Each structure stands twice: as structure tokens, then as C-alpha cells.
Amino acid sequence: MENTTLFENLTTHDFLSNISEIPRPSTTEILLRFEPYSVYIDRIVSPIWFIIGLFGNPISAKVWLGRKSRKNSSAFYLGLLAIVHMFQLIIHFVFVELTYTWDIPTNNKPVLCETLNVLSIFPQYLAPLLVLGFTVERYIAVCHPFKKETFCTVRRAIIVIACLTALSVGFACVQADLWTYYPIYKECFSKNEYQKFQTIWTASTEIMFFLVVPLCVLMFNILVIREIKRITSHGPAVTAGGSQTSTVTLLSVSFYFICTLLPASVVYAIQNEMPNGKMENLLSLERIATDPVWLSFFKYIAIRKVVDEICLSNSACYFFIYYITGKNFRTQVNSLLTC
Question: Which residues are listed as membrane-spanning (predicted)?
């Protein structure tokens, strides 16, 4: 969802056919003039998530992939998820924040244009699949306990993770063929000849990864909760404490994932229905000020920025969920920090 500009509804042809000798105001300049809060939110909140993630994700990865947790198949999903989130925060800062928030373009060079578009979308594809992976595993462990020894093993988890990673890489690499650097304009744009395909591809992949996957996670979580409720109705002695703690942790992660990703998916879907102002009015701030359609669109962008930041917290805050809900995780972190 993030390897795009604020003007996804406009085609490359729209931009290139309206290039003039006078430089067009950048996205940052436009928003600072008409919706400055959207830029301030990015400049203040995003670094907070980055700092939290820079601290929490490496610790989470070390604990989940450490010797004490390695016997638990779910730990492999959570460990890799922490690594993916760390990678996503770094790429988000290098690509999105510097380019669109601080007005320091990082993708307007050959090779970097295609590479950053691939790298920015790859973790966005893989993270939801990993959440789905351990959610399905927890569903099997709780709802079909006799199949747990067959399907919830470390070896099978590694195989599934490898397949999910390969799938994400394959989907992400398509971006390399959809974007290109235009040396004449010194800009990174999607290829004009692939515009129709890109529209269909983007819609299809966003529905699959950012709508269908979260809804599947929600469905499996509901089934798990129903089964836990049924089991506990027979008395607390039926469930093991360690398994209960693990289930609470994984359910908390899954629901936080759903609550932060689904609103972002809805907001991005709404953008396709938002009318754009006249393209030629983007050539100067003065002309934009006379276009009520663009001014209305920028108000939507301000709302979208708030939702974006909530969604970005998904890559930074899982450490707190693990620490609050997981006794073993909390013990290992305390031991690690007091060494």
C-alpha cells in the first residue's frame, strides 16, 4: 500500500503531459501549504514508531529465535515477523518518509526507482501472511489438538515460512517491471504502457493481502475463541497454563493486526472514489488554492495520514503485546536487559 504517491488516481501520462519548465510543487510543499497537520503527523509520529521498533523488534527476534523458544513452532513465525517489521520500518523511513514527508527524494535515480518499490512492498506482503500462518497453526492446536503433533512442528513451520517468503518475493518483484526512472524528467513513475495492468494488479493484490488475509485471520480467531470458551466451560483444569498464555499472546497479536490494517485498507479503497482536481492546477500552489476539488482531496489525505500512522504502529508495537501477555517472553527480556 505504500509504494505509491498521494496521487495514485492519476496516471503517469497525466503527470508527464503536464510537465512545464517551471518546477511543479512537491507533495510536501503542497501539503504544508494546504494541510500542514498531515505533514506534522508524519514528522512527529513516524520517528516515534521507528525508535520503538528499533528497540523492540531486535529484542523480540532474539527472544523468539533464541535457544529457549526454538522448540515452539509459533516462535519462528513471531521471530521472523519481528525481523520483517524492522526491515519495513527502515524501508518506510528511507523511501516514504524521506521522499514524501521531508522532501528528500530517494527513488529518483536509475535502479533505485525499481528496487525501492520492490523492497517497500515485500514486507507489506509477507507480514500479513506470517500472521495468517501462526493464526492457522493456533487454530489447529486449539480446535484440532490431535493433529497438532503432525501440523504444528518446527520443521513444518520452517517450510511454510519459506513458501510464504518465496510467494511474497514473487509478488513484490512484479513492481520492478511496473516502475521506471524517466531521466528526461528526473522522476520515478509507473510505466505508462502498463498503466491498465498496474491498476488491475494493484487492486487484486491489495484485496488479497490487505482484505482477504485479515478477514481470514479474523475468522480463525473467532473459531479459536469459541473453542476456548467451550473448553473452559468444563472447568479451568482442562487447559494448560503455558498453552493458554501462548494462545492469549497470539490472539492479541492477530487482533491488533486486524484493527490496524483493515482501517487502512478501507481508507485506501475510498481513495479510488475520491475526485481529483484539474491536473494543470498542480503546477503551482496559487492555482491549487483556486481548485475546491483538490482542497477537498487534501482533507481526505489528512485523515488518511492519521490512519497510516495507526497502521504503521503495527510494525513497532508487538513487543509490548509479547511483554504484557507472555510470561516466558517477559522473563527472558528481563534477563536479557539486566545482564
Answer: 44-65, 77-96, 116-136, 157-180, 200-225, 246-270
Using pLDDT thresholds of 50, 70 and 90, give the confidence band for residue 240: very low
Please state, in angstroms and rounded to a whole number, the distance separating the CA atoms of residues 221 and 213: 12
Task: For residue range 130-142, list pLDDT tens digits in order.
Answer: 999 999 998 998 8
Q: Which residues make Cβ contacts (< 8 Å) with residue 338, sequence separation at least 6?
A: none
Q: Which of 306, 310, 305, 315 is nearest to 88 (CA)?
A: 315
CA distance 91 to 150: 37
Element at 188 (helix H, strand E): strand 187-190
Rounded CA separation 213/215 (Å): 5
Q: Is the pTM higher than 0.85?
A: yes
Question: Which one-letter amino acid corresponds to residue 183?
Answer: P
The DSSP H or E segment spanning 118 is helix 112-143
Cell of 278: 484539474
Amino acid of residue 272: N
Q: Extract the C-alpha cell encoding 277.
A: 482536481
CA 281, 206, 276 angle in degrees (round to 5)?
15
DSSP 8-state class, residue 316 = T
pLDDT in tens, 76-116: 999 999 999 999 999 999 888 888 888 888 888 888 888 98
CB under 8 Å to 1, separation ≥6 — which residues? 124, 206, 210, 264, 265, 268
Is residue 278 within 8 Å of residue 295, measured between CB atoms? no
- Topology of 12-225+241-334 in CATH? Rhopdopsin 7-helix transmembrane proteins (1.20.1070)
